[in-house]
Amino acid sequence: MDTKRIAVATSDRKHISKHLGRCKYFAIYTISPESVQDKQIIENKFTHHRQQEIKLGAPIQGELPHKGEKHGHHHHNHSHKGLIDAIADCQVVLAGGMGQRLMNDLREAGISAYVVDDDAEIDVIIDKYIKGELQVLKDFKCGGHEHEA
Fold first, then answer.
1. Distance between CA atoms of 125 and 27, rounded to whole angstroms?
2. H or E stretch including 66?
3. Do strands 112-115 and 36-43 pair parallel, antiparallel, or not at all (unpaired)?
4. Is the CB of residue 129 less than 8 Å from the CB of residue 33?
5. DSSP for 75-115?
6. In the sheet where 4-10 sits, what is the strand order?
7. Which among 7, 40, 60, 92 has most CB atoms closer than 10 A?
8. Half-sphere exposure (Cβ direction) of 31: Cα atoms closer than 13 Å
9. Residue 15: strand, helix, or coil
């Protein structure tokens, strides 16, 4: 591996977001096997949830404005194409939570998607990734709302 690009979901530019679809930004890291080569922050204007929040002009109070809301699969008929296109040059995406459908869509696009349960700053998370010390969750669910079958 010469270099690799990693997208990290974040809402405060410092910590990992608990919900990939609602994050305000993506920190895009270019890494070598030993260190970070570059870091860019891009605003999230391409996930379905953020597009809806921006369109409604609703200020986000935290990352999960409708915590506890239940919605069925009909709610998730939106496409993840915008997100996938925006981070297409990344090989990995990290978030504190994401839905299984999004994870599958990312993997089909050749992007490895991982759920990370770590409250460290994203720079520390990336350092752990480089060192092979980052722990990812095997069992997870999309945070902030329940999905009905």
1. 12
2. none
3. unpaired
4. no
5. GG-S--HHHHHHTTT-SEEEES---HHHHHHHHHTT-EEEE
6. 36-43, 25-31, 4-10, 92-95, 112-115
7. 7
8. 23
9. strand
- pTM of the full predicted structure? 0.77
Q: Which residues are 43's β-sheet partners?
A: 25
* Integer Cα distance of 68 and 143 in angstroms: 9
Q: What is the CA radius of gyration of the chain?
A: 15
Mean pLDDT (the chain) is: 80
d(CA 131, CA 33): 8
d(C-alpha 130, C-alpha 19), whole Å = 23
- Summarize pLDDT for 60-73 with one digit per residue, the tens: 444 444 444 444 44
